[in-house]
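Support reply, case 0932

Customer input (verbatim):
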Amino acid sequence: MKAIITAPFHQEGVDILSKHMDVQLAGWGQTQEELTEDQLIEAAQGCEVLISEVEEITARVIDSLPDLKLIGCTRADPRTVDVHAATRRGIPVFHAPGRNAQSVAELTVLLMIGVARKAFEAERFVRDGEWTPDGEMPYLKFRGYEMCNKVVGIVGYGAIGRKVGAICNAMGCKIAAFDPFVTEAPDYVELCTLDELMERADFVTVHCAVTDETRGMISRDLIAKMKPTAFFVNTARAAVVDEEALIEALAEKRIAGAGLDVFMDEPLAKDSPFFELDNCVLLPHIGGASHDVTRHHSVIISEAISDYLSGKGVRCVANPQVIRG
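Our regenerated output:
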């Protein structure tokens, strides 16, 4: 078999796949320059396996590659692949669920601690030369809150939410979670309604995908239920939250603060109202930006493809019906 991989890919994944096929690396994963549709079609001619992350595997790409037998997308959600077109061709689409769960979970906890302890503000205080013998006393200016014994409310108890819960539990936090698709959780997690979570939590952290049901789910009314001492953290998607209502709550100090890695408009415009807030930490959508994520998705998708080709089972496939049928 011949494979072309345009995603960033770790050698460990290449080694796994090389037992079954000849592997060629190209495209954005090697040059940070995205191949056009025509370039991808040309590069993948004769390939039986095509794996991408940034380059879109469209219906035209799929239909232009007669030898194609397997498709991979190194994202957790294979949104850059036309899964319907692949299904029509009977081609399984492999993906990498949970690839960045640890990375996002760790950044989430970093934001929780950072906003609660005013760590980011204190760092700027030092860099800007404001830490002087006769200046404001940092011990008083940056006094914050510990996380131990606080209630962490997790909205969406999937791969990332579970890791956030485990880390926070180890820190001595009390864990509450809302997820309509989850009926069982570890003993240290209390499953509750979203209203209950928003009312009780000292930290509200969002970990769910954008769907028709979740779009705008964290509404103005729900934000109004938060404690004035509570912090809001979002490393998922901005569309889950009423962003205007969140900005108003922060500006009016109706909640203590927020740590945000995602926004409705990215990058933020220079006149964004977020820049006027002194109780909000802003990051440039880096939740999954760890070097380890490349290894995670490479191994996840390579092992899944290897097991499939070896007859050991089917997993991490977005359209398993093409295999079962």
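We compared this against your earlier run and they match. Two observations from our side: The chain has a mean pLDDT of 97. The first helix runs from residue 11 to 17. Please reopen the case if you see a mismatch on your end.
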